[in-house]
Amino acid sequence: MTAFNAKNLTLNEVIRLLKLQKLPNGSFTPLLSLEPLTEFEQQELIQTCEDFDSYLTDGKVSEGQVKLVSVGPLLRLAGFYRSPIKMLLEEGIADIAIEDEDTTITGRFDLLAIDKNTLTTTGVPFWILVIETKNSSIDVLAGLPQLLAYAYKSLEYQTSVWGLVTNGARYQFAYIQSGNPPTFQLMPLLNLMDCEPSIQILQVLKALCKLQNTPLGN
Hints:
This protein has helices at residues 11-18, 39-58, 63-78, 144-154, 195-210, and strands at 2-5, 21-22, 85-92, 96-98, 103-106, 108-119, 125-133, 160-166, 170-177, 183-186, 190-191. By secondary structure, the protein is an alpha/beta fold. The strands form two sheets. Strands 2, 3, 6, 7, 8, 9, 10 and 11 form an eight-stranded mixed beta sheet that branches. Strands 1-5-4 form a three-stranded mixed beta sheet, with no helix packed on it.
């Protein structure tokens, strides 16, 4: 049995092993309802951008600082810390067994948002958003192989899941769906340091909090 750690796999390797199909880049509009931000949310967002910019000015921002200064405040503003949503931090995924190959994929996700009140038919809490973080000097797409591997695990229990790779400044959302073959679609790349894209980042996160989830029946 060969075991691969997801962090050591390339995007092509993940696509091949998991038999994924990449769809053309998509838009948030057909999938999510984005609502205007309140005045309070706009002010808090501006403060978050300014705080993170000060860290960027000092040099490379570590992965831990990205979680603390950029991702954490945005998740709080969006409502991810409120029940019934719970955030899981740095937990290992169950091994992914690859069909037709004597191979498994292992790994440990950075952040996972679950809905504790929405259970799949197997009793597993619904996965709302899988988040992979990188330090500010790494391109966000470098984290895509890990994100897809971790998100893929949820397709055993549900029909789709959202993923996010971020280095604190840039936010790359992805939509992963079950099927034959399973697919993934990248959304527009958003920059926290630009006004309009930063607003859309928070709007997307808020919409994900309110999304009605439909588990996959097994």
